[in-house]
Please model this.
Amino acid sequence: MSAPLPQTITHLSAIDLSYLAGYLEGEGSFCCCRHGNKLYPTICAETRDIEPLQKLQRMCGGFINGPLRTRKPHHTPTFRWALTRRLDCAALARWLRPRMSPRRQTQIDTLLATI
Model:
């Protein structure tokens, strides 16, 4: 049985939810960031185009950083969207998990283990 829809995205249409799952499958990352001795769950995506990230932000909240400089001056700067609020990450990850590939499911399991 699928996890209940997270409160932060209950307003989204079925098309928007499908977009969210598909975009994060292809461009997203589910990880844990370390700050000092603490691990923080993070769902994020990085791309050269800010518009898809703005859509993710409207759908789920979170924040956008950028443009971020690249190591090579001839590369295009990128933007990064991140969802870091622990409860939002947990709810969204649980809802997304059955809709994702095995590789992403493993990332989600690692993320959920820190919560």
Q: What stands out?
A: The helical segments are 14-27, 50-60, 86-96, 102-113. The longest strand covers residues 38-47.
